[in-house]
Amino acid sequence: MNVNxxxxxxxxxxxxxxxxxxxxxxxxxxxxxxxxxxxxSPHRADLDMLLSVFLERYDARQKELDTLNKELxxxxxxxxRAAKANHKRYEQQAKMAAMGEMMDAVAHQWKQPLNAISMMxxxxxxxxxxxxxxxxxxxxxxxxxxxxxxxxxxxxxxxRNFFRPKETRESFGIKRSLSSVLIxxxxxxxxxxxxxxxxxxxxxxxxxxxxxxxxxxxxxLNNAKDAFNEREIKERDIFINFEQANxxxxxxxxxxxxxxxxxxxxxxxxxxxxxxxxxxGTGIGLYMSTQIANKLGGELSVKxxxxxxxxxxxxxx
Length: 317
Ligand SMILES: Nc1ncnc2c1ncn2[C@@H]1O[C@H](COP(=O)(O)OP(=O)(O)O)[C@@H](O)[C@H]1O
Ligand SMILES: [Mg+2]
Known about the structure:
The chain is of the alpha+beta class. The chain is 58% helix and 15% strand. Among the domains are: 19-81; 169-317, Heat Shock Protein 90.
């Protein structure tokens, strides 16, 4: 059969419709398959198209990633700002809470001497009318009044010291610092039938901001007081001991108030964790105390022991 070379070709060359558009709809694995195929087919030009489809996709993904990253950065910055604001708020709350607790303590501390002075002045009036007021009487009265006033002044100056925003780090004695905390809360704790036993005698020096240390101790003591009262414990004891051993300062405050509820013991150092109802607790005290422990270069921990809780502050030297 003659074949006319100028006749119509018998084999039709298929025109493919818009292969670029077809490729654009493929999923990535399908695209890869298409790349493999076109590498072995006469349509090598498709490789370019495939590549540009790939590049387009890559660009789009990259853009998505970029916006995602930007959003993330923005979110992180927001969270950091919120965390900072929270920390400030906690600090403020802790200060207010400590202030309130101290005001209670001072009020109790003052009640006794104020009553005494008021009584003495009543007695003075009646004794004067009975004619027994002489120079010796007045002398004794004056001494008694002075003693009462001194007690009030000591409390007040401890109180003022505590709230003076003194931020200097220095060496101070744990024993001495504890006794100055006890001056502040003594009457309040006596009124609540709580005996505080300081078991150690040898002074131990620690380096940091003393008022913060006092605050830490006060938080722990006040929590013990709350636990005693909540559970209506009869015999109420708090034992405090401290020592310097093995390159480490250790302070332990232990009570017999029944221990930390197991449901919260793992979380009590987190902010706003409290078991106290009716707005009695803020859950800030122990959070603040751990912050203070960290600033002292140490850490605060807790465990339940027989009948109570034991808080330990450990500061490596
Ligand atoms: N000595 C303790 N005995 C029993 N529970 C305690 C003691 N100290 C702390 N807790 C528990 O830890 C919680 C958190 O204490 P804190 O951070 O001081 O907050 P708040 O006193 O405002 O509740 C308390 O609500 C209480 O449940
Ligand atoms: Mg508390």
